[in-house]
Design goal:
Layout: H1 3-20, H2 22-49, E1 54-63, E2 67-70, E3 75-80, E4 87-88, E5 93-97, H3 100-156, H4 162-191, H5 202-219, E6 222-224, E7 229-232, E8 241-242, E9 247-252, E10 258-264, E11 276-281, E12 289-297, E13 323-330, H6 332-337, E14 345-351, H7 375-393
Antiparallel strand pairs: 1-10, 1-14, 2-9, 3-5, 3-8, 4-7, 5-6, 7-9, 10-13, 11-12, 11-14, 12-13
Helix pairs in contact: 3-4, 3-5, 3-7, 5-7
InterPro entries: AaeA-lik-b-barrel, EmrA/FarA_HH, MFP
Pfam families: Beta-barrel_AAEA, HH_EMRA
Keywords: Membrane, Transmembrane, Transmembrane helix
Length: 398
């Protein structure tokens, strides 16, 4: 018998002995059972302490405001002062338009405002003159009445001709009519300026509004950045004739970004507003971890807001698991250290240990975005208008 055959014969004999030995068989079964129990216990502990306390998805992307910059007035582009990828500050000049037409209109309205102020000054002086005329006519009337009073006794004594007295009565009537005419003229002159000073006269206010509109239009030939951010999608070209509302470029602020994590509908059961979130991104190879919190859940699934939403009542509908966007706010300090870009893919893990928070977001305590760069334009327009008014008030301003 060869050596191999003897070895096989020995193994077969040992197996047979083991099969016939109940103790060895029990130990083998116990070991196998223990292994399965430990694996099940390990899986249960992993699920209970780790997997059941979080929801994860890799269907998540960085979101941010995309501010489309457009012109508010028509014009021809004469300068472009920022390009794609460049950083710009709020209020920085980005595009300039030819301002010839706007300057002409501004000069016209400036002259009209000055003329309106001078006309109201003239009307004020006319009222003063009309009041003086009324006073003079009152003196004339009193004189005529006094003359008539002195001559009436003479007529009774036949010392004065009745014709003379009649002429005096006619003079009194004429003086009274002249007084009434003067009062009417004074009232008409006073109606144009009554109740207001020169600066707040309706004619001046109308001219001031026209000047303000022309001044703002002239300033809008200089297009500024409404927010701080980075330029993207520049489409404006030098010499282009643009219309109001035409998009010129996009400004993307990279400071207040968020994550739109699209969770499956069966993952939303324990997701609540305020829960902590951990985020990793492919751009840093998973070595950088961001920390955020849930600030809201979408009001509908992604398919509902698609261009061609599914028609579930058409009869050919097939059920698929829907996804709902969950918005996660990011920490700006972490964004400053490790900047992100809009549209980047991320892996999101939501800690659902505490699921007692609200599902629906409350009313916003502050606006999501705002800018004050345009307020300065309106304020400066009022300052320029006031300068023109003061310059044309003359002595009446004292």
């Amino acid at each position: 018998m060869s050596a191999s055959e003897s070895t096989l014969s020995k193994d077969a004999n040992d197996s047979g002995l083991a099969a016939k030995d109940p103790a060895k068989r029990s130990r083998a079964l116990l070991i196998v059972a223990t292994i399965f129990v430990l694996a099940a216990l390990t899986w249960f502990l992993l699920w209970y302490f780790v997997l059941s306390t979080r929801e994860t998805t890799d269907n998540a992307y960085v979101g941010g405001n995309q501010v489309a910059l457009s012109s508010q007035v028509p014009g021809t582009v004469v300068a472009i002062l920022a390009d794609d990828t460049q950083h710009v500050e709020a209020g920085q000049v980005l595009v300039k338009l030819d301002g010839t037409d706007a300057d002409v209109r501004l000069r016209q309205t400036s002259s009209a405002l000055a003329q309106a102020v001078r006309e109201v000054r003239q009307q004020t002086d006319s009222v003063n003159g009309a009041d003086a005329t009324v006073a003079a006519r009152q003196v004339d009337l009193r004189k005529a009445e006094a003359d008539l009073t002195r001559h009436l006794p003479l007529v009774a004594a036949q010392a004065e001709s009745p014709e003379v007295v009649q002429h005096m009565r006619d003079s009194v009537a004429q003086a009274r009519a002249a007084l009434d005419t003067a009062k009417a003229q004074a009232s008409a002159s006073r109606a144009a300026i009554e109740g207001t000073d020169i600066a707040n006269n309706p004619s001046v206010l109308q001219a001031r509004a026209n000047f303000r509109a022309a001044w703002v239009a002239a300033q809008r030939n200089t297009i500024v950045a409404p927010v701080t951010g980075y330029v993207a999608q520049r489409s404006v070209q030098l010499g282009s004739s643009i219309a109001p509302g035409q998009q010129l470029m996009t400004i993307i602020p990279l400071h207040n970004l968020w994550i739109d994590a699209n969770f499956k509908e069966n993952q939303l059961r324990h997701i609540r507003i305020g829960q902590p979130v951990k985020i990793t991104t492919d751009i840093y190879g998973g070595s950088v971890e961001y920390h955020g919190k849930v600030i809201g859940l979408g009001a509908g699934t992604g398919s509902v807001f698609s261009l061609l939403p599914a028609q579930n009542a058409t009869g050919n509908w097939i059920k698929v698991v829907q996804r709902v966007p969950v918005r996660v706010a990011l920490d700006n300090d972490e964004l400053d250290k490790h900047p992100l870009r809009v549209g980047l893919s991320t892996d999101v893990t939501v800690d659902i240990t505490n699921d007692k928070g609200p599902v629906l977001a409350a009313a916003a305590q502050q606006p999501p975005a705002e800018t004050s760069v345009y307020d300065q334009v309106a304020a400066q327009a009022d300052v320029e208008a006031q300068k023109i008014i003061r310059a044309n008030l003359g002595a009446s301003s004292n």
